[in-house]
């Protein structure tokens, strides 16, 4: 029959031993000893096989106390459960026995049934423990050498802790000493922040949970702390008495670092370390929801022409400035009760804070910080401000308003700051409408071509006209080109519009030919944007030739500033145009900075000078001299000159003295619908005929 | 660890961040100063083992404070924390006697390494 284990009975009372032997005859193998000395000899031999020792206290030669001591003191034997039998029933003697290492105490006379059960439980627990110790010895080594974990086993009876072999990889020798001697009194090794948690966790005697874990920082050397996960498994075998606890210490420093880094990256901007856009939106919404009765400022900020910094000083310096700027914003707003901020992208930052804070002071401090940054470049803050009153609005909308205001600020001369007010709101609304309706408007021919006649004052006749675009909006009436042209130049729609004008002009000239109306040249405006269309010349030729318009009847006007910004493209364009027999005009000549340079390099036929910029009367000598020189120079170069924007009689007289006889302006005729122009042409001719008849 | 550390920075947030980082490294004995004037008084009174000094302006004003602190105690360990990270500024500070320099925004680990180096 398979016995469940080997038990050593140590008792000098043979009859007592007989009873026990009889009790366990079928269950365990039995060894006997009549005194301590013999017992020790047997233990020496059979320590590995022993499941338990039943020990009587009072024996000759060597008493139970001594035997107990010897067993506890021996590394190999100390885990073998010892059940002590004693006739005494005093607490002090029991205590002493436990102190010496007894597992269990049984008082004589023994109750056979109960003792049998007790022994059974103890042996079972020990077997398990033995297995654990045997197996874990090997596994421990494996674990120690391959993972970030070291194991500690705490014995509830002996109240000692045994640290796994490789603890030195993780904690210092002192830690081991302290831990082994006074298990869990590791105040000096725990980061003060985590002390409370640690104390509670290591209060083993009062633990109720079988498994618990915490994450705290432990000191690994004189100055460094690392994150450890500590898991504790209580072995509550047999009648709920505590046998031992297994504690795992796992170095999770890397995991914690990685997790923190990940969280940080998700919430913050990588360069400046301040919150990112996503975090900003969430926090703004929260702040607004939590403060329904307060008003807030929504700001968008950037640095005027920041891209130049990168070009002039390198991206390293650019990054340094952004970090600096972000730090200043952060330090300012963190001092407020309620405020949120972020870096949206590149040099664009957002902020949202309570209206109770001093916005002007905020801007002042920020500007002062930028001014004092050591760089030979003016770092200019541009800010758009939107005052939040209606919290139900989308955060994105609020940001859009503040952004719109900021862009508006940049259009002004100072590029400083702009509030988003009613006026701006209307403007933005209008612009949005214009853009959303432009394609439809083109299709339904809401755009009309007007012609402004040009005159020769000497011969007193019309010599041609300039085609100008007008938008006849069905609800709003005629919209000023000043509003929609800049928008279309920004979004590129201007090119479609310019082709449309060309088409209408060609069609009109064709119809004049067909109807016998005198055909005079019409000049069409070309925008800078059009130059980027690689098919520009082809499309122009296609349209002009489709209507069989003679090339000297269509002229092309380009503003002088385009000659500077798109010099190469324009050179090519004008050369090709003139090759095809079209005339080229420079518009607004003299208003830019490189008038002379332009003339030197670009081939044109006509200069259009805007008189608005020049004197109203002969009396302004300097200006007159300059104007006169330009006109002379042009003529010497074989260029025609047309004076534009002539609105007053004085200007007419001035021009006469300067020998400029080609004019365009309100004084003579305003831009007018084609039908009106046609009438004018016809009446002009009738007049001429009339003269001829005189 | 009980070494006394003095933080000089006029921004509340910056002081908060520094304190948090130091506590994570178990440096819990911290004193603060918010203005140059306070800084000198507190420095003299508290005699910190280490000083973290913020330079926000590149002109001599803040390096001037460094000079004064070192005049009070030439052996003082002073580390500069600044949002200005130009080489020239760092050079000048070290030449003047600062022991090390850290640029904002900084990583906690790096600050602790620097502090540990200075104090051990």
Structure explained in plain terms:
The complex is a heterodimer of chains A (694) and B (120). Helices cover 46% and strands 23% of the residues of chain A. Chain A is an alpha/beta fold and 694 residues long. Chain A folds into four domains: 6-128, Response regulator (Rossmann fold), CATH 3.40.50.2300; 147-257, PAS domain (Beta-Lactamase), CATH 3.30.450; 268-420, 2-Layer Sandwich (Alpha-Beta Plaits), CATH 3.30.70; 432-679, Alpha-Beta Barrel (TIM Barrel), CATH 3.20.20. The longest helix of chain A is centred in the first third of the chain and has 35 residues, at 112-146. Chain B is an alpha/beta fold and 120 residues long. Chain B has a domain at 37-46 and 64-75 and 91-102. Chain B contains five helices and five strands, in the order βαβαβαβαβα. In chain B, strands 2-1-3-4-5 form a five-stranded parallel beta sheet, with helices on both faces. The longest helix of chain B has 13 residues, at 12-24. The model of chain B has no long low-confidence stretch (mean pLDDT 89). The interface between A and B is medium-sized, with 26 and 27 residues.
- Rounded mean pLDDT of chain A is 85
The CATH topology assignment of the largest domain in chain A is TIM Barrel
Q: Give the SSE order of chain B as H and E letters.
A: EHEHEHEHEH
Structural class of chain A: alpha/beta
Give the strand content of chain A: 15-25%
Helix content bin of chain A: 40-55%
Q: What's the CATH architecture name of the largest domain in chain A?
A: Alpha-Beta Barrel
**Cα shape of chain A:** rod-shaped
The tally of beta strands of chain A, per DSSP, is 25
> What is the helical fraction of chain B, as a range of percent?
40-55%
Shape of chain B: globular
Radius of gyration of chain B: 13 Å
Count the beta strands of chain B: 5
Number of helices of chain A: 23
- Summarize the biggest pleated sheet of chain B: 5 strands, parallel
Which blocks of ≥5 consecutive residues of chain A have pLDDT under 50? none
Percent in strands of chain B: 15-25%
Largest sheet of chain A: 8 strands, mixed, barrel
Spatial separation of the terminal alpha carbons of chain A: 153 Å
Strands across the major sheet of chain B, in which order?
A: 2-1-3-4-5
Q: Report the average pLDDT across residues of chain B.
A: 89
